[in-house]
Every structure is written in structure tokens, then in C-alpha cells.
């Protein structure tokens, strides 16, 4: 199925109807906005990756942390939030203030498939990494990821807490993200502290 076209989104705040927002990282466990419905969802065409150097929320320019972005290829399971039309402008303003502090993401609309009884396809607002931005980290080795996460601490707290909370949110939805789980096990220093029985998302996420 052809990918939904990317556009600049000045009208996203004024469009009619409810707004869907796709969360794949901290939005899964700390959305920070009012929503009417929360539905597990799947986005095809990008995958979740620790590919963004954090200069503000989880690190500094001198000691960058690492946060998640949607990068090219594969698929990503996350959460779709339905926002009431009356709250659309406020929620978009909130998301822009939260996600676009350094403009490392591109604000796009993407097709996501809701994993509910209806299994419908909706268009959702989400944030995709800008590969041309100085904070784009690309594909880092697990050792490099670990080094940045251990050192990272920013306005929103310790980078390791961000990784741990995201892994717990993923587990709560009943799946795994192999690289994040490996990194979390390294951070915990205990390979038995995380569940190993959940289905592995990595088969379709790269």
C-alpha cells in the first residue's frame, strides 16, 4: 500500500474531527495530554530506534543521551491516542513544545493500523527523525548506546530511566523490542530481571 504523503502540517491544529497521535517511546507511558481512547497500533514503514542524541531532555550537548526516533524501514508497534476535536490545537501545541525543542523530528501524518476489534486504518500524527539533523545518531552499536545512556541526564531526568520505562511500557503491551531489552538488561546488570517469554517484535521491525 503506498505510503501516506508527508506534508508540512500547519493545518493539523485546525482540521476537523478527532486527532489520532501515534506514540512509540515516552508517549506510551507518559502522554501528558487528554485523550478519549488509547489503542495498541502498528505503523509500517519506519521502526523504533535509539537514533537521536538528546541535548535537552535526557542529556546535554557536552554529554548527549539517546532517545528514540522513528527511522526508515520495518515496522513499529506502539499506542494510538484519540484526541477530541476540541482539544486538537492544545494537544498539537503541547507535542510541538515537547518533541521539537531542537527540531530533530519531522512532524508527519502516517497510516497506522489499530489493533482492536475493528482493526481499522487511521491517519495519525507522529514524529519521525530528521536524518539530516546534527542530532541524528544513526545505527549505533549496543556498546555505544550503553555509553550514552549511562552518561545521559537532562531536564527530564536520567537517560537510563527513560529506557527502563519504555521497556516496561512495551512489555505491558505484550511484545519485545530486542535492542531495547538488551540495553535494559545491561543497565540493570541482571539478564533475569526482564521477561523473556513475550513475542519478539524484531522480526518485523527492521
UniProtKB/TrEMBL annotation:
SUPFAM superfamilies (alphabetical): Gamma-glutamyl cyclotransferase-like
Protein name stated in the entry: glutathione-specific gamma-glutamylcyclotransferase
CDD domains in the record: GGCT_like (cd06661)
EC number: 4.3.2.7
InterPro entries per the UniProt record, alphabetical: ChaC (IPR006840), GGCT-like (IPR013024), GGCT-like_sf (IPR036568)
Keyword vocabulary terms for this entry: Lyase
Amino acid at each position: 500500500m503506498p505510503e501516506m504523503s508527508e506534508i508540512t502540517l500547519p493545518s493539523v491544529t485546525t482540521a476537523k474531527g478527532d486527532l489520532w497521535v501515534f506514540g512509540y517511546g515516552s508517549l506510551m507511558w507518559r502522554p501528558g495530554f487528554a485523550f478519549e481512547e488509547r489503542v495498541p497500533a502498528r505503523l509500517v514503514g519506519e521502526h523504533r530506534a535509539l537514533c537521536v542524541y538528546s541535548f535537552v531532555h535526557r542529556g546535554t550537548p557536552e554529554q548527549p543521551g539517546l532517545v528514540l526516533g522513528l527511522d526508515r524501514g520495518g515496522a513499529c508497534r506502539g499506542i494510538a491516542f484519540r484526541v477530541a476535536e476540541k482539544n486538537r490545537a492544545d494537544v498539537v501545541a503541547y507535542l510541538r513544545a515537547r518533541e521539537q525543542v531542537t527540531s530533530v523530528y519531522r512532524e508527519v501524518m502516517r497510516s497506522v493500523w489499530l489493533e482492536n476489534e475493528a482493526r481499522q486504518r487511521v491517519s495519525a500524527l507522529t514524529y519521525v527523525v530528521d536524518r539530516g539533523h546534527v542530532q541524528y545518531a544513526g545505527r549505533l552499536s549496543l556498546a555505544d548506546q550503553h555509553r550514552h545512556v549511562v552518561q545521559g541526564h537532562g531536564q527530564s531526568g536520567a537517560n537510563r530511566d527513560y529506557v527502563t520505562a519504555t521497556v516496561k511500557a512495551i512489555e505491558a503491551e505484550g511484545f519485545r523490542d530486542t535492542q531495547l531489552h538488551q540495553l535494559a538488561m545491561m543497565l540493570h546488570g541482571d539478564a533475569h530481571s526482564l521477561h523473556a517469554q513475550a513475542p519478539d517484535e524484531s522480526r518485523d521491525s527492521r
